[in-house]
Specification:
Blueprint lengths: L23 E4 L7 E10 L10 E10 L2 E14 L6 E9 L3 E9 L9 E7 L44 H5 L5 E6 L9 H14 L5 E6 L18 H5 L7 E5 L5 E6 L4 H10 L1
Parallel strand pairs: 8-9
Antiparallel strand pairs: 1-2, 2-5, 3-4, 3-6, 4-5, 6-7, 8-10, 10-11
C-alpha cells in the first residue's frame, strides 16, 4: 500500500517526549530517494532475535527542526529469508521529498504484537542506482563466450549456463523484458546471494521464452578468490549500476526501462508480481 498524504495541517510529533521502545528496528534500504521505493527493515526483540510477525503497521513522518510532521501509514509484509527464521519487512513507500524521515513500527500479530520500534533514516536527493522508469544501463558484461569456464564468471557452485549467454546490452535489444541479478553466491556478506540466484533460476523457468534472465557476479575474478577474499576485484557493472550493497535484482520492461528494483534478498513472490506486470 502506498503511503497516503497527511492532513493539511498535521500536528508535529514531539521527538523530545520519552517513548518506551520495546523493539529495535534496522533499516536495510541503502538507496532511498523521492518517488516510489521498496522500504526494507528488520525488527529485533529484547534478546536481539528476529521478531516473528506476518506484518507491521508503519507510521511515517518527515523530520523538521520543530518535530516530525506525520505523512501517512503503510502496511509492511514480513519476508522470510531462506535457511532460518530470520527475515525482513518490506513496504512500498512513495517519499515526496528528501531529508530525514522517521518510522514508528508496530507488529500487527505474532509474539510482539502491539510493541513499538522507532527508526530514523535518510532519503537522498537522488538515487545512486537506476531510478524506476529510467533507461537501464547497456552493460557489456562478460558471457560464457568470453571465458574458458563458468568458474571465471560466477561463484555459484551449481551455475545455470543460460544465465551467462548474453550481455545486458544484447538482452535490451531483443524487445523482451529482462531480469538481472547482481550477486555473489560464494562471497555474500549476508549469505543470501546464493538463495537469490536460486530464485532467479526458478523465475527463468516460469517465464521461459518470455523474458531474458542474466546473473552478473559481483566480482570479476571469483575463480581467483577461493581462500583469499582480498584478491577480489569488483565487476565494472557494479559501479556502472551504482550498487552500494549486494545482492540487487532489477526488472527491465520491453522498452528498456527500469520497472522494478530490489535490494537485498527478494522472494519469488515479490519478483513475480513485477514480472507479471511487464
Amino acid at each position: 500500500a502506498m503511503a497516503c498524504s497527511g492532513s493539511s495541517s498535521p500536528t508535529p510529533v514531539d521527538l523530545a517526549t520519552p517513548v518506551v521502545l520495546s523493539l529495535r528496528a534496522l533499516v536495510a534500504s541503502s538507496d532511498l530517494a523521492p518517488g516510489e521505493n521498496r522500504f526494507v527493515f528488520a525488527l529485533l526483540g529484547s534478546t536481539s532475535s528476529p521478531v516473528r510477525a506476518s506484518g507491521a503497521q508503519v507510521a511515517l513522518s518527515y523530520v523538521e527542526k520543530d518535530g516530525a510532521v506525520p505523512y501517512g501509514e503503510v502496511e509492511a509484509v514480513f519476508r522470510r529469508w531462506p535457511g532460518g527464521p530470520g527475515g525482513v519487512f518490506t513496504a512500498q513507500v512513495d517519499f515526496p521529498q528528501a531529508g530525514t524521515w522517521l518510522a514508528e513500527i508496530v507488529p500487527t500479530d505474532g509474539e510482539a504484537v502491539g510493541e513499538l520500534a522507532r527508526l530514523s533514516f535518510e532519503v537522498k536527493e537522488q538515487s545512486d542506482t537506476p531510478a524506476l522508469g529510467a533507461p537501464a544501463p547497456r552493460s557489456s558484461n562478460r558471457t560464457a563466450a568470453d571465458v574458458a569456464s563458468l568458474e571465471e564468471l560466477t561463484s555459484d557452485v551449481n551455475p545455470d549456463q543460460e544465465l551467462y549467454q548474453m550481455t545486458i546490452a544484447q538482452a535490451l535489444q531483443t524487445g523482451q523484458p529482462l531480469l538481472v541479478a547482481f550477486a555473489t553466491p560464494a562471497f555474500c556478506a549476508s549469505a543470501t546471494c546464493g538463495p537469490q540466484v536460486d530464485v532467479v533460476k526458478a523465475l527463468k523457468e516460469t517465464y521461459k521464452g518470455l523474458i531474458n534472465v542474466i546473473h552478473v557476479e559481483v566480482y570479476e575474478n571469483p575463480h581467483e578468490m577461493r581462500g583469499d577474499l582480498s584478491k577480489g576485484r569488483l565487476s565494472p557493472e557494479i559501479e556502472e549500476w551504482g550498487l552500494p550493497t549486494e545482492p540487487w535484482t532489477f526488472i527491465v520492461d520491453a522498452n528498456g526501462l527500469i520497472a522494478g528494483k530490489f535490494e537485498a534478498f527478494t522472494s519469488y513472490e515479490e519478483l513475480d508480481e513485477t514480472l507479471a506486470r511487464v
